[in-house]
Write a structure and sequence with these properties.
hydroxymethylpyrimidine kinase activity, 36% helix, hydroxymethylpyrimidine kinase, 273 residues, nucleotide-binding, Ribokinase-like, alpha/beta, 3-stranded antiparallel sheet, PM/HMP-P_kinase-1, globular, UDP-N-acetylmuramoyl-L-alanine:D-glutamate ligase
Amino acid sequence: MISVALTIAGSDSGGGAGIQADLKTFSALGTFGTSVLTAVTAQNTRGVTAVETLSPAIVAAQIDAVLGDFHVGAIKIGMVSSEVVIRAIAGRLRAYGRRAVVDPVMIATSGDRLIDEDALGALKEELLPLAEVLTPNLPEAALLLAEPVAETEAEMPEQGQRLRALGPRAVLMKGGHRQEAESVDWLLSDAGELRLAFPRVETINDHGTGCTLAAAITAELAKGHQLDEAVREARTYLQGALQSAKNWRLGGGRGPVHHFHTLWPAMAGERAS
């Protein structure tokens, strides 16, 4: 049986994040990808120049079209910056009795906040209780908790447990923002606390890493893996995608990871055209 995954997220015209990164990741991991667009962005490796949010009606209609036809094994939710769209998504997931991998895209790489107070409130109220696993980076975790950003590794699982109290079944605290030799993530679930550590990859090509990791978890869940196994496999996949693209020169800013690194090689130092 073919495994099917669904991504509910925004479009990235630069191809490194959002729907495009999710569908690449699904395919790279042997999962058929379906999609629901929440917004269209004009962006590239240098940044975002325009955003247009789709109506809650068309977002809900896309969800109905996919879940009403495909046997979707797992769902990922990415960029949802509008309160009405968030409530529409949550309403459709509840109608189908589904939960999701929720990647709370709320703060840009530049540090700019991407979500207003109404949308943040709706995300916490509507989507966090529907999260199979929540995957915040450290600034996003702090924003959800209205706390300072975790400065030590010991604070990461502590904040993760406080996030679990808001409704998610599990929380993956991502430590990529900490400048240590290792990049450490913590998975907090009913099974306990799992520490995942990987060597930090020194690269400017890290655009879309959060989208890619959450999509990889979704793909592995769609294939029937348990959460801890899905997270391990997804984190290993992301490590390879970062390592393979570290010498790319694709665009003039922060480039993407190499989603298909197991299928075709990236030439070291090569400038993509």
